[in-house]
Structure formats: C-alpha cells, structure tokens
C-alpha cells in the first residue's frame, strides 16, 4: 500500500498504481460499501422516534454534500482546473437532489418532492450502485482520497434512498415514470451542452468510461449506437425499477393478510 500517493491527482500518478475492477481491492471496496449501507439501515431501524430518524437522514445528506465539497477543495489544492470536477455527473446531481429532498420534504410542494424522490429511486439508485460496480476511478489506488471519497459518497446516496423508500418518503409509480424520463432528458440536454462546450464527459454522454458495460456497444456500433443504447436502457430501467418495486410491494402486502 503506497500511502505516499494518497493525495496525488490522477494526472500525476505513476502508471499501473490503480486497482482493477472485480479483483481483490475492488471486492474489498464493494464489501465495505455493503457493510456501511447495512449498518446504516440497521442504525436507522433502531431509532426510537421520528426526530432521531430525521437527524440521521440529515447527517447522511449533509455528509454527502460535504464529500462533494471536499473533492473540489482537493482538486483546487492540486492546482488542477475544476472544470472536469464539477458536480454534473448523475451521482453528483443525486447528492444534491438527496439534500433538497430531505430538507425540502414537507416544505416544498408535494409534487416537486415526489418527482425528486421518483428520480432518486428510479435513476440515481441504480446509477450509484453501478458507479461502485463499474467505477471510472480505477486509475487511482484503492487506498486513495478520491477512491475513498467516491465510494463513500455513493454508499451514502444509496443508503439515503433506501431509507426513504422504507420510510415511505419515496414511492414507486409506473404512471409517473414519464415525468422522470422527461426530467432526465432535459438534464441530459443541458449536461450535453456543457460537455460539448468544455470538452468534458459528464454523465458519459460523449462516450462510455473504460469499465462501462456499454463499452461493447460503443466498440461495435460507434457513438450513435452507444447513445441510442444508453437512452433505451435508461428508459427501460426507469419503468422496470418501478414495476418490480410495485410487484414486491403488492406481494408483501398480500403475505401480511
């Protein structure tokens, strides 16, 4: 374990120091994330009243936003342009949406918080899980500030969404899925414009990351095929997640009778 590289930015790292997907270091990272999420869910269930539950949820979303800020501070300290580290990836946006959802719940219009919750459950939950499974940060060592920050952040996002789902603060809905599709389409257009302007690849709209499961589609059909595949999978995933959640919910209610 080379601790001397802990605060080294990617462009200054020696070649070959990163970890490999689905090898020992990656499995350890995934197990630690799973342990954190499980422990968080258990801790939330042990909360005896609504006040403690609300405090725990707010600690989670505040910690997620704090991790985003720490990452920006790290980049600035490395004297690297922040243009490629802006919170414009789907998971970074998820962290912001979690914060708005928690502190706006009961204050913002109900339809708005319902939409945010639906986006979090239908899109961001799967996105955060995939970000841990198929990380695009494998150029960094397993024991590195960015690796720890990224995986901890994604675990907190997953934990918050699962808590809100079990608490009934987020409800699956097939009939409202079109709203999430429309939200994601509008967001993608805005981020795409930023990508083209600053030559970035936020939300991977200009191409897949090295470890992406969509890399074969990109290699076989090119950018157009990749983009069509990305759009179709996103829409299918939104509807599938809600259909599965409602099916499970219906079966659980039936078993309680």
Describe the structure.
The chain is globular. 69% of the residues lie in helices and 0% in strands. It has 257 residues and is an all-alpha fold. The termini are far apart. It has one domain. The mean pLDDT is 93.
Which properties best describe this structure?
257 residues, 69% helix
Oligomer: single chain
Low-confidence stretches: none
Structural class call reads mainly alpha
- Give the N-to-C terminal Cα separation: 54 Å
How many strands, which pairing sense, and closed or not: the largest β-sheet? Answer: none
Query: What portion of residues is helical?
Result: 55-70%
How many domains, as an integer? Answer: 1
Topology of helices and strands:
Blueprint: H1 24-46, H2 50-77, H3 90-104, H4 110-133, H5 145-167, H6 177-198, H7 215-256
Helix pairs in contact: 1-5, 2-3, 2-5, 3-4, 3-5, 4-5, 4-6
Give a short summary of the structure.
This protein is mainly α and 257 residues long. The protein has one domain.
